[in-house]
Amino acid sequence: MTKQSWAVELELGQLSPRRRKQRMCTLLDKKSQREFMSAKKAQIKVARYSRVIILWLGLYSLIHLSNAAACSCIFLTPHEQFQNAEHVFIGRITGVRETKHRASHPQWRGMLGTFQVLHNFKGQPKTLKYIDTGLGPSDCGVNLVVGHAYLLFADKMGSVDICSGSRAFDPKDPKNAGIMKELKSYALF
Predict the structure, then answer these.
(1) Residue 82: CA atoms inside 13 Å, Cβ hemisphere, count?
(2) pLDDT tens profile 102-128
(3) Secondary structure of 79-148 in the HEC alphabet?
């Protein structure tokens, strides 16, 4: 038994039952108040640390995640897609590798694809060393797969994206015969 608890018991023994009850409530209230205050101080510390952590996470995301992108395309007719492109061709992908800096957007990562020209509609695609695209549909990139054929609308640097009309394309599929015919008609003008 500590000195303080002994003194409290002695004090309580000398009081009337009514005063003893009031004094016990006061002592318990003081103990509860101390516990409450220490818990409150702990909550305040946690809140302060939480704010600091949230601030650091926000700064980190602004600095390191600035390469986030989302794809939003303006609708173009096939004729407009053809006119806007420097090179229009059907090519089979022969190799794919990731790059940290795209030719058309040096601040973005992307994919470089080597290709074999199957059919040319416009431009000189054989002068291009590779085609350059985003990592996937979220950044307007064409999902390049080795061995697959694509209809590619490339700019002068070889950059392609889904907004330009570039997409997977099987020239032997009867559904695509109309598109091939339409592209050939644009090439005549």
Answers:
(1) 18
(2) 777 778 888 999 999 999 999 999 899
(3) HHHHHHCCEEEEEEEEEEEEECCCCCCCCCCEEEEEEEEEEEEECCHHHCCCEEECCCHHHCCCCCCCCC
